[in-house]
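Reviewer 2 asked us to include a model.

Predict the structure of this chain.
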Amino acid sequence: MSLSRPVLALGAGPRVVADARRWVVGTVAEMGRDDLTETAELGVSELVTNALLHGSAPIQVAVRGTREHPRIEVRDASPERPVMPHSRGTSAGDHRPGNVDLDTVLDDLDLEGLEAGAFALATVGRGLDMVARCSEAWGADIEEDGKVVWFSPATQFAEDEGVAGVVSDLDLPRAETIDDPVTVHLLGAPGYLVERLQRHVRELRREVRLLGFSYGNAYPAAATLADLFPLLVPLTESRYIDAVSLSAAGRGLDLSVVVSRGSALAARQAADLLDKADDFCRQEELLTLHRDDQLCEFQDWYLDQFAQQAAGHPAAPWQVPVTDPHASAC
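Predicted model (structure tokens):
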């Protein structure tokens, strides 16, 4: 069985919580981790509920990490930070952490067919407090286009308040603070490959950082890789793109990216880092898709352009004809 897990895209309404629960339960069962069923089921129910009530569409659920240490992620398009349990006070009555029974909560969260109002009332007062009690580690990553709230399900439901969550922001410098800026021109770049590269770098960066944070002793290479990933951030993040226009030859996009000369000259090191990260994914059997041949070829051209142009060479356009597999046929 392939360990690579697809992403579950969710719609709107109370039924999607039940859909997410079934999907996550099925995924952990396929992985042979039935010991995580209850905490994974409850945790994802709470995170999807929060995304529906307080986040923005689209909402996605993913399972990352490894079979030994899986991580469940819920992504939505709102970059607003979640309200962490320690900052909102203790809930009243039966919603206090010490008065919650796991089986009762799971029964409450059988939300198929409920009206939206009843759905909201059934979940108010638990949220991230419950996630903390279901987790070995959990937190949220805030990005420029939304956020990912994640947790590593524990084998047992905590009787106390559980573990503290960690919120991290995308740590990018503002463009006007770039020292010795250089403008790199990426000519004829296929838009969908640019998006795939950006998404791949973000997911890998989160993967190695969270594995190092949560299970550093089990994955010492993850912490080392995480320390190197800032090399890639200014080269791939969309906020560094200064201008986008259609290529005159109709091949794709012409991009102008402003970075420091030092970052551009380090692009070959960044390419080596992606190769090492791919090796790490394969060796540790991560539940994250590694790059295919097309993305590897595009990444090599993309990053080489930074190093070449920073050294004074002219821009060389992307020459490989590609077709977006997601484009509609005429």
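The two ends are 36 Å apart (CA to CA). The first strand starts at residue 8 and ends at 10. We have added this to the supplementary material.
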